[in-house]
Design a protein that fits this description.
Elements (H helix, E strand, L loop, with lengths): L7 E2 L2 E5 L1 H4 L2 H5 L8 H22 L2 E5 L4 H6 L13 E6 L5 H11 L4 E5 L5 E5 L9 E5 L5 E4 L1 H9 L1
Length: 163
């Protein structure tokens, strides 16, 4: 089923479908970044169970990257196993001077997720992935400026943030 890109998601009414497929990189490279039916369902799942609760708690958030078709994922130097390829991941920034740590802590302690990455913490963005049947994996990672990943817990992020 083709989605009206400017329509709001039924279970996440603060978001439109377009926010999850919009990509400057895709536009500049003439890449059609359109999900299939399962990928749309995955996008809706992440929006409903992670992004809408974050939006309800903190206000506006800005989606930086959502779904990436295979061609776009290659252009973005994304991993072949990237959750973005399946519509299960979103990179976003909070607005209104909300601290990245506060959002990470809220997600870690209150929501289901498969993967939560603090990218370029404390001033970068948040990557969150949620895949059905993998909701309780709750792997938290820290990504540094050299693109190295370290598995951490929320207490380590808190210590880094408070220092």
């Amino acid at each position: 089923m083709i989605r009206d890109l400017y329509k709001k998601l039924p279970m996440a009414p603060n978001f439109t479908y377009n926010e999850f497929v919009r990509s400057t990189l895709a536009i500049h490279n003439n890449i059609e970044n359109i999900p299939n039916e399962q990928q749309w369902k995955n996008i809706e799942y992440v929006a409903q169970y992670v992004l809408q609760p974050v939006r309800n708690k903190f206000g506006t958030i800005f989606i930086l990257s959502g779904f990436r078709c295979d061609e776009l994922n290659k252009k973005a130097n994304g991993s072949k196993s990237s959750f973005h390829r399946f519509g299960n991941a979103v990179d976003f920034e909070p607005s209104n001077n909300i601290k990245m740590y506060d959002v990470l802590e809220y997600i870690a302690l209150n929501l289901n997720f498969t993967e939560l990455i603090a990218e370029f913490f404390p001033n970068g963005w948040i990557h969150v992935a949620l895949a059905e049947n993998r909701e309780h994996e709750k792997v938290i990672k820290l990504k540094d400026t050299n693109h190295n990943f370290e598995v951490v817990d929320i207490l380590k992020l808190e210590k880094l943030y408070k220092n």
